[in-house]
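fyi for ur records
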Amino acid sequence: MRSSQEQNELLAGCLREIGFPAHAEPGGGIRYDPGVPEAQSDALDDANYACESQYPLDPQYFTDLDEEQDGLLYDYWDQYFVPCMEAHGHSISREKQPSRESFVATIGTAEYAGWWPTETFDVLPFDEKEAVGDACPPYPPDEHLYGV
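which gave:
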């Protein structure tokens, strides 16, 4: 079973072999540097389909987190990610941070307060993500969150 980061690396490599400038993003996802022209969007869709068929994502990543996983995510953000980012010079607002109990009870619902500390990481330039991403990954390791 592959981690989500390993999955992204495989997909990015596959897309590069097809001819797209794909790179696995620190913290998750794929980026295209310098980008993909609009005229290539259908070809990119086809390439994504081919690569995702070749390297399917484990079904566990498609399910919602359970309460225990939601609690682990909250604890990770609260106790590790936010302090780590701040130690690396990136302030994260705790203004909308709910209590742990509220987070677990409402995440994924319309009542959720919307505290996403990863937004600060997501908008960093790629080189900064690489620099801070090893020290402050925006999500706990898959082996802790998913037990893999």
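The chain is about 50% helix and 5% strand. thats all i got for now
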